[in-house]
């Protein structure tokens, strides 16, 4: 029979093994998310999405969640991917052109997948400890999924969640996303100031989506010449044909105004 001391030593070893395993799992989660990101928006080529990669990333994350069911970071990433992937059918036209979030037919979104994602977000956020980065990102995706339309999205809460992310997992990409959310709360001029400050610090130098975000803000401000220049920069920076076609449409709209 095991003594109390033996049980204590065994519990300690199990805790060490769990911690070592999760240190390993964090790296695996990062790789899984990279795979999903390539499936969600391809780096280059003719096709916007590679659904096979997105599905495989979700499958692998489900396996991790089954192995470590009390880890909020795993549940958060699984929720994040499910909620993003649920919009797949609405994200492009039959001809392969991008349909932006504000223009998507939400009836095409996968409501069963959204329901699963929402449940996982709640589970991740209820677990002990501070919220993990993927869980907060999933909470942002959940607000988009719950909104009946683009106009009624809870942008102040989304901006607030990005501020939480900046505290717990700061990065220039999150700063850019925060600025985009701020544009929906305080207007494009305020967001442009944030992007200027980000660029002045050298953040996201060479990041291909930076000129696209800037172009959209300038377009909304009515600064047509500056917007046109930024769209041309965005088009030159990307290797993804659907994005090039989107920027070409925006340039055509500017020329027609």
Describe this protein's structure.
The chain has helices at 4-40, 51-67, 72-85, 111-126, 133-146, 155-168, 172-185, 188-200, 210-220, 224-237, 241-256, and strands at residues 44-45, 239-240. It starts with a helix and ends with a helix. Helix 3 (72-85) packs parallel to helix 5, helix 5 (133-146) packs antiparallel against helix 6 and helix 6 runs antiparallel to helix 7 (172-185). The chain has two domains: 17-153, no CATH class; 208-257, no CATH class. Helices cover 70% and strands 2% of the residues. It is globular. The protein is mostly helical.
Describe this structure in a few short sentences:
By secondary structure, this protein is mainly α. The protein folds into 2 domains: 17-153, no CATH class; 208-257, no CATH class.
- Low-pLDDT runs of 5+ residues are 1-18
In sequence order, what are the helices and strands, one letter per element? HEHHHHHHHHHEH
Q: How many strand units?
A: 2
Structural class: mainly alpha
What's the story with the biggest beta sheet? 2 strands, parallel
Query: How far apart, in Å, are the first and last alpha carbons?
Result: 84 Å
**Number of structural domains:** 2
Q: How much of the sequence is in beta strands?
A: under 5%
What is the subunit arrangement here? single chain
Q: Strands of the largest sheet, in order across it?
A: 1-2
Radius of gyration: 21 Å
Helix content: over 70%
So what's the overall shape?
globular
Number of helices, counting only DSSP H or I runs of 4 residues or more: 11
Mean pLDDT: 91
